[in-house]
UniProtKB/TrEMBL annotation:
The protein's name in its UniProt record: Cyclodeaminase/cyclohydrolase family protein
Ranges where the Cyclodeaminase/cyclohydrolase domain occurs: 6-183
Entry GO MF terms: hydrolase activity
Protein origin, superkingdom: Bacteria
Hydrolase found in the keyword field: yes
Keywords: Hydrolase
Keyword Hydrolase: yes
Length: 211
């Protein structure tokens, strides 16, 4: 499994002739890194003096966001595997026989299904990554102030995950959206792109030394 590889092994595999991991895996890894970095901020916040001085309600908000950040780190890693399987599915579909009319028809149907899956996985990733900005904002508000730069990096990396995912949505969408049946996907990805950029910039612009 790709997620079980060491950093060095992953990088070596990424730079090799193997078809996966590729851009989709990198997008998922970017999201996992961002959420893990957010978790680190919480790890160095909870039960410290500033945290203990918070109201019970604010403590609950922090702890809930902390747990969600850890949970989503695992989920984003799963997307590395899901993207690999989807991409290999597309490759295998294109390798199918096309000697007869039936084979041509079945091959086309299989390719379309594989492309749709390869499109939906990064689409889901972009959506979940966009939603994660709420946890980054919570870390910005309540997290250890000595780690404010790490919060900023988490926002930058999460935006990279969103933008990278959208690239992978669009590359598969171009082969599927000829009759406009996936127009809603195109519209949604545009909204995710805009939202991510806005959220990233809002977070960075709220940090004094980055202004």
């Amino acid at each position: 499994m790709l997620k079980k590889l060491s950093v060095e092994e992953f990088i070596n595999k990424l730079s090799s002739e193997e078809p996966a991991p590729g851009g989709g895996g990198v997008a998922a890894l970017s999201a996992a890194l961002a959420s893990s970095l957010n978790s680190m901020v919480y790890s160095l916040t909870v039960n410290k003096k500033a945290f203990n001085n918070l109201s019970d309600n604010d403590k609950k908000i922090v702890l809930t966001s902390y747990e969600k950040s850890k949970e989503l780190s695992g989920l984003f890693l799963e997307y590395i595997e899901r993207d690999k399987e989807a991409y290999l599915g597309v490759i295998n579909a294109y390798k199918m026989k096309k000697d007869t009319d039936d084979e041509v028809r079945i091959r086309k149907q299989t390719i379309d299904r594989a492309l749709e899956q390869a499109m939906l996985i990064p689409f889901e990733l972009a959506k979940t990554a966009c939603e994660f900005y709420e946890e980054i904002e919570t870390a910005l508000k309540f997290g250890n102030k000595n780690l404010i730069a790490d919060v900023a990096v988490a926002a930058v990396m999460m935006n990279a995950a969103v933008e990278s995912s959208i690239v992978n949505v669009k590359v598969n969408l171009r082969s599927l959206n000829k009759n406009g049946e996936f127009k809603f996907i195109e519209e949604k990805t545009h909204k995710y792109y805009e939202k991510s950029l806005i959220m990233k910039n809002e977070i960075l612009n709220s940090i004094d030394f980055l202004k």
